[in-house]
Amino acid sequence: FGYREEETIIIPAMQQAMQRGINVVGPLPPDTCFVPWMRKTTDAFVCMYHDQGHIPVKALAFDSAVNTTLGLKVVRTSVDHGTAFDIAWKGLARPDSLWHALRLAAQLGMPADK
């Protein structure tokens, strides 16, 4: 696990994206890619490991972040904060993250020409 992963998987995937006209930079260190100026100039971050992406996203947008899985035959989104069993049935839950997840699922499910 992790042996030459950057050379054999990540860089070739980036090159394929560039060949399709996608502006790609990286790999970047996760401790600095989420700074304000990078967030303003970047449309998306692809994080290789769960905590590299979830920690900064939850810190920056806990109530609006959406988790999505790419490469599936179906659209899959979910709230990014987890199940929140600790507040279930207490009247404390907020629907914000669910609305964002549903909205993104609808957008991802639309034909590309719309």
Question: Your description of this structure?
Answer:
By secondary structure, the chain is mostly helical. It folds into 2 domains: 48 residues, no CATH class; 53 residues, no CATH class. Helices cover 41% and strands 5% of the residues. The chain has 4 helices and 2 strands, in the order H-H-H-E-E-H. Strands 1-2 form a two-stranded antiparallel sheet. Strand 1 and strand 2 form a beta hairpin. It is globular. The chain starts with a helix and ends in a 5-residue tail after the last helix. The mean pLDDT is 87.
Short recap of the structure:
The protein is mostly helical and about 110 residues long. The protein contains four helices and two strands.
List keywords for this structure.
globular; 114 residues; 2 strands; 4 helices; mainly alpha; two-stranded antiparallel ribbon
Would you list the SSEs in sequence order as H and E? HHHEEH
Strand segment tally:
2
Number of domains: 2
Mean of the pLDDT scores?
A: 87
Structural class: mainly alpha
How would you sum up the major sheet?
Answer: 2 strands, antiparallel
The proportion of strand residues reads 5-15%
What is the overall number of helices? 4
The residue ranges in which pLDDT falls below 50 over 5 or more consecutive positions are: none
Shape: globular
Helix fraction, binned, reads 40-55%
